Each structure stands twice: as structure tokens, then as C-alpha cells.
Amino acid sequence: MTRTVATPLVRRALGIGTALAVGLALPVLVHLIPIQAGPPMGARLLPIFLAAAIAAMRLDAVSALSIAVLTPLLNQLLTGMPAGPMLPTVTIELLVVVSLVLAVRTWAPGALRYVAAPAYLAGAVLAGAIVSGTGPATTLAFAASWSWPGLALLALVGAVLAPRRDASGSPS
User: Fold this and answer.
1) What 3-state DSSP class applies to 52?
2) Which residues form the domain of 144?
């Protein structure tokens, strides 16, 4: 039997491969942008979260969660980023983002286009509390000061790339 793009297994593999490629390429490209001071450009533009949020909006749960785990691990292996101490934090943040987007996709699909940026904030607060004992005020202050461009990108990507529903409620 010949496998074509129409078979579910091939579509799933293509979705995972595309999401991983985007999740690897975007952080590399973003880290090429020079900065004068402050946190790295990845902490400002949140590129690794874009692929994970899109995967959670468009792929099945297992595929999306695998993107959340594999993307930071492969990025760390290939580029050294996220730096060693940040790897658990970023992985927890990605798992929270993907889990929340998947939950909204299941229980409130009409809100799917609005959830990516708030999901990141929830993930950052939870990861900060788990990994470093940071309180929510500190995490949210950092996000407001430095990560606002990435939050805007997440909001824009969610608004543009979230699947739309037709009048019958099925994805279009």
C-alpha cells in the first residue's frame, strides 16, 4: 500500500515535522538579532512558543504535547539555547501553553484565537513558581517590561492562525 499525504499517519508526521522545523528555526533566527542590554531576544519575542501554540491549535493532543517537549530539547542540543538552567522552565512553560490551548480548543473553541498570550502568562507564572520560587508579580512584571512584543506576536498568531468554525460548529 502506498502512503500519500491523505493518510492520517502521513498528515500527522508532516504536522509534527513542520512544527518542529518552525520551533527550531524561529529561535535561531530571533537569536541572530543583536541586542544592547537586557534579556536575550528569545525572552522578548518568545519564538519557541509560536510553533507550540500553533501545533496545539491545529494538531492532535499527542503531537502538540510532543512538540512542547521535543522543541526545547532539540534546540538545546543543536544551539545551546535555552541555556541549561532555563531548559526546565521553558519546557514547563511550553507544556502549560499547549495544555491550555488544547483545553480551550476542546471546551471553548470560539475562544481559541484569544488564548495563546494568556496561556504563556499562566505557563510563565507556574514555571517560575515551580523552578525558582518566583511569585506571580515578579513574573508578570518581567513579561510586561520585556516580553510584551512576544505576547503581541502570540496574540496575533492566535488571531490569524486559529482554526475558524463555520455555522455548523465544525472547523473550516
Assistant:
1) helix
2) 9-31+41-161
Its pTM stands at 0.89
What pLDDT was estimated at residue 127?
96
Number of domains the chain is built from: 1
Residue 140 has pLDDT above 80, yes or no: yes
Q: Which of 122, 160, 159 is nearest to 143 (CA)?
A: 122
Cell of 172: 473550516
Separation in Å, CA 62 to CA 43, 94, 103:
26, 14, 13
Q: Other C-beta atoms within 10 Å of 129: how many?
A: 14
Residue 122: helix, strand or coil by DSSP? helix
> Does 25 reside within a domain?
yes
Cα–Cα distances (Å) from 64 to 4, 59, 71, 131, 143, in that order, read 22, 6, 10, 23, 24
12-37: average pLDDT: 92
Could you tell me the maximum CA-CA distance found in the chain, to the nearest angstrom? 57
CA triple 53-59-63, angle to 5 deg = 90
165 φψ region: left (φ > 0), alpha (ψ -120 to 50), beta (else)? beta
pLDDT of res. 29: 94
Q: What is the mean pLDDT of residues 51-62?
A: 95
Dump strand ranges (E) for the chain. none
- The pLDDT score that the predictor gives to residue 84 is 82
